[in-house]
Design brief:
- The complex is a heterotrimer of chains A (265), B (399) and C (181).
- Chain A contains eleven helices and eight strands.
- Chain A has 265 residues and is of the alpha/beta class.
- The longest helix of chain A has 15 residues, at 22-36.
- The longest helix of chain B has 18 residues, at 162-179.
- With 181 residues, chain C is of the alpha/beta class.
- Chain C has a single domain (3-178), classed as Pyruvate-ferredoxin oxidoreductase, PFOR, domain III (Pyruvate-ferredoxin Oxidoreductase, domain 3, 3-Layer(aba) Sandwich).
- Chain C has a six-stranded mixed β-sheet, sandwiched between helices.
- In chain C, a hairpin with a 7-residue loop joins strand 2 and strand 3 (49-57).
- In chain C, helix 1 (16-30) packs across helix 4 (129-141), helix 1 packs across helix 5 and helix 3 (115-123) packs across helix 6.
- Chains in contact: A-B, B-C.
- The B-C interface holds B 13-16, 22-24, 133-135, 190, 193-197, 302, 305-306, 308-309, 312, 381, 383-385 and C 21, 24-25, 28-30, 34-43, 62-65, 67, 152, 155-156.
Chain lengths: 265, 399, 181
C-alpha cells in the first residue's frame, strides 16, 4: 500500500456507512495520485458539506473543508492565488447541482484548472435521505414520501453545456476505468468534471427497495455502457460511461497571468 | 515592481505634479488606495451600487502589482474566493453593499471560525432588501456584528472623511492580519461617493502589519490553531511544507473536527475573547471639544460630518457642545463612550438608522435616560439642521 | 473666508458630474484650498436627473451637501424647475439659453448663454459642452482660475482631448465675460 503516505491514518476507519461507494472513489483517487507521483505539498483538497466532503479530512493534502456548495468558489480563490497547486474538489449532489449549482457552471465556464469529482448517489445522505436534483422522478426519499416529481440533472450534459473542457463519467463498480479517467482529469489543463455514480445503500438503496451495496453495484454494471460501444448504440436506455470531452482551451489562471503582463507592460 | 508602480501612479487621474502624492478622490477610491498601501493581493467581488468603484479601481490596479482581481458569479462566491485566497497567502478583500452583504454572511462566519484574515467592505445603502440602491444609510451596523450565525466576534471600522477612509482601510488589514479575523469596513454611500483631497503618506509612514507565518520547520508538528502566548496564530500558507486542515466545524489545535465539549468551549472563548478582550486596543475614535461639553454628540461615518458642522457653528455662538466620532463600531467601545459622555447633560446619537448605535450608547452611558437619537433613514443625509431641531426639542426650546 | 456652494444639475450624459469634479479638483489640488464634491443620481446612466454638489472654501468643510447653492448650473428645464427655488436669494444661476427657460420670479441673477450652440459651431461636436459651461462658470464666479481648471483637465483627460478642452473652456469664459453686468 504505497499510497498510505497519502492518507491521515489516524482518522480511519472513515465515517462512511458500510457498503458506501465513497471509499471506492477515494481508493481510486489515491492510486492515481500515487501513480502520478505528484508532490504532496502541491496537493489541495477543497470540499463542501456532506458525506463526500469528509474526504478532505482523510487525505494528507492541504485540506479545506468549506461550506455547503461553496468548495469550487473557495478553490477558485486558492488556485488563482497559487496556480502551482493541484486542487481537487470533491462534491456531492447538493454541492455540485443544488446549493452550489451556480458555482459549478461558472467554474466550468471559466475553465479554471481544478479537478471536480462529483459523487452522484442520487440522495442527500448526511441529512438522512432526502431527494436531490440527481434523484430523478419516481424516487422515494424522506422528503418524497409519494415519490419525487423532480426531473434529474444530467451532470455530463450540464458540464458540457457550461463549457467544461474535460467531462467524464464512471461508476464505483468500474474502479479500473475510474482510475484511468481520474488520471486524465488530473493531467488535463483546465476544469475537469468527473461524475462518479456511487451507491448509497443506507438511504437510496434501502428506501427504493433496490437492495444493498452489491445490488447497487450490479445496477451500475448492468445499466451502463462505455461510449462508442455496440452495447450502448443498441440500447440507448443505458447510461453512457467514458470521456465525453477532452479539449484544450485557454485556462483561466494562465489567461490571468497574461492580464498581469498586459497591465505591467 | 517599483517601476510599474511609479508608472501606474503617474497615469492615475487627479494627481498633482509635486513631490507629495495628493489626489482628489472618492471614498471608494481612497479605500482602494489604502488597501494597496496595506498590500492587498487579491480581490473578488460582484458589482453592486454604491460599492462598485472599489471593484473597478482594483480591477485596474491589482494586476499592475501582480495581484489578482476576479469578478465572481455572485456575492457568496466572492467571499468564498477571498477565504481561499487568504489561505494561499494573499492579503484578500471584497466589497459590497446591503443585499450583497447579506449574502456574504455565510462565508464571513466561516472566516471567523477558521480564523482567516480578510477585509470586507460594506458601502451602506438604504435597506432592507433592495431598498434605495443609490441612497445613503447606516442601517447595517447590527448586521455587521451579528450577520453570521452562532457565537462569534468581529471587528467593524468606519470613517467620515476621505483621508480617514484611507488610513482606516490600512488599519483594517492590520487588525485582520494581527488577529486572524475578518474585519468589516462599514462605509456609507455619502463617504463612498464624495470626493475630497487625499494625501497619500509615503510607504513606511503608516504601519503595515505583515502576515505572521509559522517558523515551525518541515517534519515538525505544526499546530495551526494553537495560539501563542500573545494570542496570535502563526499561519502556514497552503502549498507550504505543513499540510493541515481548515474547517468550519469546531476543530482541535490541528484543525480537525472535534465534538469534545471542552474543546468546543475553548474555541468559542478564543474566538470571542481574542476580540472582545481587546476592545480598548481596537477602539479608534476622534473627538472635538469634549473637555467642557454639556451636550455630547456621538456619531460616525458621514453623519459625523453633519454633527461636526453643527458643533462648529454652535461653538462659535458659545454653546458647550462636542462630538465623539466613533471609528470602531464593534467591538463596541463602551468604556470610551462611558468616559466621554459621563459629564454630559445630554447625549445625542446621530446616525442614519433606527438607533442601532444609540442602543449601545444607552447601555454604556452613565445616564441612559439622557441619551437621544437623531436620525434619518429616508435615503437623505442627516443634516446639521435635523440635529439642531431635535436638540431644541430636547432642550425644551420648541420645534 | 468665502465659501462657494455650487449645485450643478442636468440630465445624465451631459457631463454634469465630470464638470463638478473638475471644478472641485482645480480648487483642491491646484489652488491648495478645500473642496468637496458629492452627487446624487437615480438608476439611469443616460437621461434622468443628475445633480452634483461642490463646496469650495478656505476653511474646513464638514457637511458635504449643498442645501442652498450660491451658484446653480441648470442644463435642463427639469433641473432648473427643481433647483432654482433652492438658490440663495441673490445667487447666480447659469443656464444654456437654448435649453432652459428659468422661472422669472426667483430672486437670482440669471445668466443664460447659448453655450451648446457655440460649442457645436466652434468644435462641430458636443463632447466638450460641459467644459464650456465650466469655463463660463469660472469666469462668472471667479471661484477658481482658468489656469487651475486647465491643469485639472490635463490630468483627467488623455492628451488627444487637451486642445478641444482648452478651446471649450476659454469659449465659455469669453462668452461669460462679454455678458457680465
Amino acid at each position: 500500500m504505497a499510497f498510505r503516505k497519502l492518507i491521515r491514518e489516524r482518522f480511519f476507519p472513515h465515517i462512511w456507512c458500510p457498503g458506501c461507494g465513497h471509499g471506492i472513489v477515494l481508493n481510486a483517487l489515491l492510486h492515481t495520485v500515487n501513480e502520478l507521483e505528484l508532490d504532496k505539498s502541491s496537493l489541495c483538497m477543497v470540499s463542501g458539506i456532506g458525506c463526500s466532503a469528509r474526504i478532505s479530512g482523510y487525505v494528507d493534502f492541504h485540506s479545506m473543508h468549506t461550506m455547503h456548495g461553496r468548495a469550487l468558489a473557495c478553490a477558485t480563490g486558492l488556485k488563482l492565488t497559487k496556480p502551482s497547486l493541484n486542487v481537487f474538489v470533491p462534491m456531492g449532489d447538493g454541492d455540485a447541482t443544488a446549493i452550489g449549482g451556480n458555482h459549478f457552471i461558472h467554474a466550468c465556464r471559466r475553465n479554471i484548472d481544478l479537478t471536480a469529482i462529483i459523487f452522484n448517489n442520487r440522495i442527500y445522505g448526511m441529512t438522512g435521505g432526502q431527494y436531490s436534483p440527481l434523484s430523478g422522478e419516481g424516487i422515494l426519499a424522506t422528503t418524497a414520501p409519494y415519490r419525487s416529481i423532480d426531473p434529474a440533472f444530467d451532470i455530463v450534459e450540464l458540464a458540457l453545456g457550461a463549457g467544461a473542457t474535460f467531462v467524464a463519467r464512471s461508476t464505483a463498480f468500474h474502479v479500473k476505468e475510474l482510475g484511468g479517467i481520474l488520471k486524465k482529469a488530473i493531467q488535463h489543463k483546465g476544469i475537469s468534471v468527473v461524475e462518479v455514480l456511487v451507491q448509497c445503500p443506507t438511504y437510496f438503496g434501502r428506501k427504493n427497495k433496490i437492495g444493498g451495496p452489491v445490488e447497487l453495484l450490479e445496477y451500475f454494471r448492468d445499466n451502463t455502457a462505455p461510449l462508442g460501444t455496440k452495447k450502448l448504440d443498441e440500447n440507448p436506455a443505458l447510461i453512457a460511461r467514458g470521456v465525453f470531452r477532452d479539449e484544450a482551451r485557454p485556462e483561466y489562471c494562465e489567461e490571468y497571468a497574461k492580464i498581469i503582463a498586459r497591465a505591467q507592460g | 515592481m517599483g517601476r510599474t508602480q511609479k508608472q501606474a501612479t503617474a497615469r492615475a487621474a487627479g494627481r498633482n505634479a509635486g513631490a507629495q502624492d495628493i489626489r482628489f478622490v472618492q471614498g471608494n477610491e481612497a479605500c482602494v488606495l489604502g488597501a494597496l498601501y496595506a498590500g492587498v493581493g487579491f480581490f473578488a467581488g460582484y458589482p453592486i451600487t454604491p460599492s462598485t468603484e472599489i471593484a473597478e479601481h482594483l480591477a485596474e490596479q491589482l494586476p499592475r502589482r501582480g495581484g489578482v482581481f476576479i469578478q465572481m458569479e455572485d456575492e457568496i462566491s466572492a467571499m468564498c474566493a477571498v477565504c481561499g485566497a487568504s489561505l494561499a497567502g494573499a492579503k484578500a478583500m471584497t466589497a459590497t453593499s446591503g443585499p450583497g452583504f447579506s449574502l456574504k454572511q455565510e462565508a464571513i462566519g466561516y472566516a471567523c471560525m477558521a480564523e482567516i484574515p480578510c477585509v470586507v467592505v460594506d458601502v451602506q445603502r438604504a435597506g432592507p432588501s433592495t431598498g434605495l440602491p443609490t441612497k445613503v444609510s447606516q442601517g447595517d451596523v447590527n448586521q455587521a456584528r451579528w450577520g453570521a450565525h452562532g457565537d462569534h466576534s468581529i471587528v467593524v471600522l468606519t470613517a467620515s472623511s476621505i483621508q480617514d477612509v484611507f488610513s482606516i482601510t490600512v488599519e483594517a488589514f492590520n487588525i485582520a492580519e494581527t488577529y486572524r479575523t475578518p474585519v468589516i469596513l462599514l462605509f456609507d454611500e455619502v463617504v463612498g461617493h464624495m470626493r475630497e483631497k487625499l494625501v497619500i503618506p509615503p510607504q513606511g509612514d503608516l504601519e503595515v502589519v505583515e502576515r505572521l507565518r509559522t517558523e515551525v520547520r518541515a517534519g515538525v508538528n505544526y499546530h495551526p490553531y494553537l495560539p501563542r502566548e500573545d494570542g496570535r496564530l502563526p499561519i502556514s500558507d497552503f502549498g507550504g511544507v505543513h499540510r493541515y486542515n481548515v474547517t468550519g466545524l469546531f476543530h482541535d489545535i490541528f484543525g480537525f473536527p472535534t465534538e469534545k465539549p471542552e474543546e468546543v468551549t475553548k474555541l468559542v472563548y478564543h474566538l470571542v475573547d481574542k476580540i472582545e478582550n481587546r476592545a480598548h486596543l481596537l477602539a479608534r475614535h476622534k473627538e472635538y471639544y469634549l473637555e467642557d461639553a454639556e451636550h455630547v454628540i456621538v456619531s460616525y461615518g458621514s453623519s459625523a460630518r453633519s454633527a461636526i458642522h453643527l458643533v462648529e457653528g454652535r461653538r462659535r455662538k458659545g454653546d458647550r457642545i462636542g462630538l465623539l466620532e466613533l471609528q470602531t463600531l464593534w467591538p463596541f467601545p463602551s468604556q470610551l463612550v462611558r468616559e466621554k459622555t459621563a459629564r454630559a447633560r445630554n447625549v445625542f446619537v446621530v446616525e442614519m438608522n433606527m438607533g442601532q448605535v444609540k442602543s449601545q450608547v444607552k447601555q454604556a452611558a452613565v445616564h441612559p435616560d439622557r441619551v437621544f437619537l437623531v436620525n434619518r433613514m429616508d435615503g437623505m443625509m442627516v443634516t446639521p439642521t435635523d440635529i439642531g431641531k431635535v436638540m431644541r426639542i430636547i432642550e425644551g426650546r420648541g420645534f | 473666508m468665502e465659501k462657494y456652494r455650487f449645485l450643478m444639475s442636468g440630465s445624465g450624459g451631459q457631463g454634469v458630474i465630470t464638470m463638478a469634479i473638475l471644478l472641485a479638483e482645480a480648487a483642491a489640488i491646484h489652488e491648495g484650498r478645500n473642496a468637496v464634491q458629492s452627487q446624487s443620481y437615480g438608476p439611469e446612466a443616460r437621461g434622468g436627473a443628475t445633480r452634483s454638489d461642490v463646496i469650495v472654501s478656505d476653511g474646513p468643510i464638514f457637511f458635504p451637501k449643498v442645501l442652498q447653492p450660491n451658484y446653480l448650473v441648470a442644463l435642463t428645464n427639469e433641473a432648473a424647475g427643481k433647483y432654482l427655488p433652492l438658490i440663495r436669494p441673490g445667487g447666480l444661476c447659469l443656464y444654456d439659453s437654448d435649453m432652459v427657460t428659468p422661472d422669472v420670479r426667483v430672486d437670482a441673477r440669471k445668466k443664460g448663454l447659448p453655450l451648446y450652440a457655440a460649442v457645436m459651431k466652434k468644435l462641430g461636436k458636443p463632447v466638450a459642452f460641459n467644459i464650456c459651461v465650466l469655463g463660463a462658470l469660472a469666469a462668472l464666479t471667479e471661484a477658481v482660475s482658468l489656469a487651475s481648471l486647465e491643469k485639472a483637465l490635463e490630468s483627467r483627460f488623455a492628451k488627444a482631448h487637451h486642445e478641444n478642452n482648452r478651446i471649450a473652456l476659454h469659449l465659455g469664459a469669453d462668452m461669460a465675460r462679454d455678458c457680465k453686468d
